[in-house]
Structure formats: C-alpha cells, structure tokens
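Researcher: Next sequence.
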Amino acid sequence: MTTDRITVPLIRARKGAGKITALTAYDAPTARLIDGAGIDIVLVGDSVGNVVLGYENTLPVSMDEMLHHLKAVRRGVSRALVVADMPFLSYQTGADDAVRNAGLFVKAGADAVKLEGGLEIAEMVKRISEIGIPVMGHVGLTPQKVNQYGGFKAQGRNTQAALEVFQGAMAVEKAGAFSIVLESIPYSVAALIAKACLVPVIGIGAGPDCDGQVLVFNDLVGLSVAPPKFAKAYANGLELFAQAVKSYAREVVQGSFPASTGGPEIPASELEELTRITRKNTGK
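Model: Next structure:
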C-alpha cells in the first residue's frame, strides 16, 4: 500500500495498469477506516439517502445533506481521492447550476464530483471540467432515474439499450470525465465499454473486466438489510452488532456492567464529609 496522496492524474494513469478500489463513506470514522486500509477512492454517495437517512431511494437527498456528510468524510481522509455525488436536481437544471453546486462541493473538501447520466448531461460535465473541477461519470443503472426504470433494474440488456449505455459513456468521456462508473449492466457490455474508453471505468455490478470496483460500505460489511445481488458481504455486521447490543443489555440488567470499581475515585475523607452533608440535607 502506498502512502502517497491519490490524485485525479494518478487514477487516470491506472487505466489498464492495475485495479482501482473504491468504497462509499458517509462519516469520519468510516472514512478513516477505509482510508487507512488503502482504498483509492472514497465516494460520498447520495446512497446516504437510503443507507443512512432512511429514505426509500436517493431522490430526496439535498445539497445541504450531501455537504454535511462530505465535510465529515473529508475530516477522516488524508490519502484517498474524495469524490462527492451531486444529488438529484443539483445539476439537471442547467450548466450554471451544475457549476455552482460542483464548486460548493470542492469548497467543502471534495477532490472531484460524480454526475449520473450520459448524453443528456454531457454539457454539464464539460462545463464543470472546464473550470477545473474533475468529474466522474456514471452510466448504466443510474439510481436518480429509478422512477423512470420502474425500480432498480439492470440496464443495457438488449442491443439498443446497450448501445445507449455505450454512447453515454463515450459522450461523458469526450466531455472531460476522468473516470466513469458502470452500474448494473451485462458484464460483456461493460467489457466493451472498458476496452473502448481511454479513462478508467469502475464497475458496480458490471463484472471483472472494469478497471476497478466500487461497493457501498454497508453492503461490504454486512450491515444492509436487502443488499443488491451483485454486492458481496465480507463480514456479518448485522449479526455482530446485534450480538454486541444484546450482550450490553444483558450485562446492564444483570448488574455486571459497569464494574463496581475502576471509575474515578474520591478520597475517603472527602466522601465521609460529602456523606455527612447529604445526610443532613436529605435525612438519608
């Protein structure tokens, strides 16, 4: 694991030269853990909406909420590249809004921003990139279009649909994106896009032929109640945490936590004086 700070040029240079690792984070402790483990990219995803904030999907997530979580993550990262998702309606309303909101993310600590979409958001990617803010693209299953899809459904599963994903990736790359996330598309289609793109493509449910992979942290550690099929849990966090909570509750009820000794002490003479005063005041 290198201790060098990860930058956008370093990520671009990794195209075809080794797998890129990325994970989401929404708070400082998790970000610190991920950063310390040597992950290349920490993504402050708008998935915070359904993973942390209790929303049904990412659509309700606001700029204020994203900025709040971005600032927390930034305080936990010293090495990885911090990328922030631009939430729904923070860039779809026009290039001026996109630039302004991307700038707010940079001021809050983001090294780059991520936008969902293909041809329809290429102009926003171009404008943001032109003023010096690195942009990560995101094509395939784009969660901000969940209502249009009728649910979280894989994309690109026939020739025309796959061509649209391919053309979207090409458009975003041409507009200036330094990398592109491919989500939930056929592995064979992802392989074609990865081969055609000059910038790294990072898969999530898009197979092994991408230049890197990204997962939601809660899915990785087994804290998600209903993780997507493509996710892999490397620990059973739900069971581990549930057992810890149950053990705590049991020890409190039984009186074994906390222990009767080990806390801060008061000198015996002071305790005697305190006892005398409290008895006088309460009669007990």
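Model: The chain has a mean pLDDT of 96. The longest helix spans residues 237-254.
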